[in-house]
User: Fold these one by one.
Assistant:
Number 1:
Amino acid sequence: MPLPIDPSEKLKQIATGFALAEGPVYSRRGYLLFTDIRNQRIHKWENGQLSVFRENSNRANGLTFDHQGRLLTAEGGGRVTRTEKNGSLTVLAEAGLQGPNDIVYAIDGSIYFTDLPKGRVYQITRQGQVRVVAETAGPNGVALSPNQQHLYVADYKEGGVKIHAIDPDGALRPGKPFAPLTVDGLKTDETGNVWMASLDGIEVYTVNGEPLGKIPTPDRPTNCSFSGGVLYITTPQSVYQIQTKVFGTRTF
């Protein structure tokens, strides 16, 4: 199977000048949000214009939305928050956390997030309970399969991606090796392919763990995210986009 991108497509830089860009997520309202961890900002890119969505972001890293379109943020400063529609912040998890890294929203209303320094993957249940659902050396990126039955976790310290089956109550079964790659952030598409920000580009694997190819990037990518068939990619200094032949998995 070929990489699901037209060979004529090229990366397009849409923003640059950041200290450590991460966490891209596209809103159904028509704009992209992403973090600049070291400068403690969340940026907004809309209609080709860049603005600051939030200052003093507490080292915000991974971002996603819930089903109401509210922003969920894994803050490296030690908490997970939700930005309400009036702009206020609600703390969803904080006690015992060291450095929440990446986050994904499940259609059952629960939230999964990683805490890399703690070596743990957490779930916030629909009832608001925060519980550990997996432990691994360096959990970084996290993504759900299209059918919501599996969770992918990139272990940055071990240098591999694991796949966990999800039990009906949201608990995770022990992870199995999926890809022998050092990966930061990752996402899935509607066909089940996994798009992984690895050492020198976005590596794409099928649901069966077969490599499809790579999108080379000018710098080491940190994460990626879809808006329909457009893939957005963050590197430490810049944000890029490229058109694909598939649509990303929607979890909100």
Note: The first strand starts at residue 12 and ends at 16.
Number 2:
Amino acid sequence: TASHSELCAVQHPNGENIPKLLDFLPLAKKLDIPLFLEIKSSMTGIERSLELAEKVWRIVDQCNVKEQIHYISFDQDVMRKVLLLEPAATASYLGWDGDLSPEQVSANGWHGIDYHIRAYRQNPQWIARSRELGLLTNVWTVNEAEDARDFLESGIDFITTDEPELLLGMRG
């Protein structure tokens, strides 16, 4: 694994470095679109994960982009921490296999489900059920036109893709 300073030194082929959150958010604010911000869990333990959640929240607050940010995390404790720090925040549970149903996500006080394409394929009723519960839905990672078309027709709220041109070309 790379250290923080090693990651900051990495240059993309275009000569740009990996941006820090504090550098990126002011630029993103100009876009005035929802931004999904994943807070990763620390391998060193829950205390570090919760500390990271608080640091991320402080940066979002400092950059005055609270309304644009949609927090996501695989870690339920991180989600709880975000909502403790910012009760008005939008926070969705991030999962691979749909380990929590829309009802469970709603009962936890979160605002949506953010699941891998496989979870929605195994539970296609979850998009409609989430809508009934007032939850937002996001699917990842959708890179095929047929999958994108299916999810657009299903009424999914957001689609995460590695192929944005594909989805932009499908907009009606």
Note: The chain has nine helices and six strands.
Number 3:
Amino acid sequence: SSLVDTEGDYEQWIMAAMGTAADAFTVVSVANGESLPDPAAVSAVLITGSGAMVTDRSDWIEDTAAWLRTLAGSSVPVLGICFGHQLLAYALGGVVMNNPKGVEVGTVNMYLADAAASDPLFAGMRDMPVQASHRQCVMQLPPAAIRLATTDMDDNHAFRYGDRMWGVQFHPEFNASITRKYIEYFQDDLLQMGIEPAQKIQACQETATANKILQRFSEQAGG
């Protein structure tokens, strides 16, 4: 199965979910050789999903990890989504690898940790359905990181590092239609896990609450 006919891409979906004008963003495709900006010149950083794997250890991945480390402890808010969540965790000393439980894809239940109650992005929220699509996961959080959420297949589904850095494994920018495409993409993996893709597709639902994470991050960024 292919994702090439899926309309849009991560950055378009994120902008739409945040309700922020496109000209408020500068999109940098590091994987395609584009240079990262001076850390002093950015007001906020959002790291999207990717078809790449953190464990590839490609030069651009290592360079981006080093760049993210320069932002640790700064006033710049940072949010990593899916691959971005994993890359941020890796950059800060966490461990990323293939999830031994298999691929997690579809609308899944996310359970908030106690620390989420006082977190700027998660405060006031309850356990909720979210859209997931990932083969790798954060197996070990960075030292001093705070766990914010788990799922049945992922113990470190969201975290905060310091006061201004967050990682979320789920995709707050996905709608049910996009998620169904990813289920189709992972259908062979699901079958090997003994899971019927058609049932996963049927179980997809909209998860508007998760979009609040992006809107709250925009507020943190002054947007």
Note: The first helix runs from residue 10 to 18.
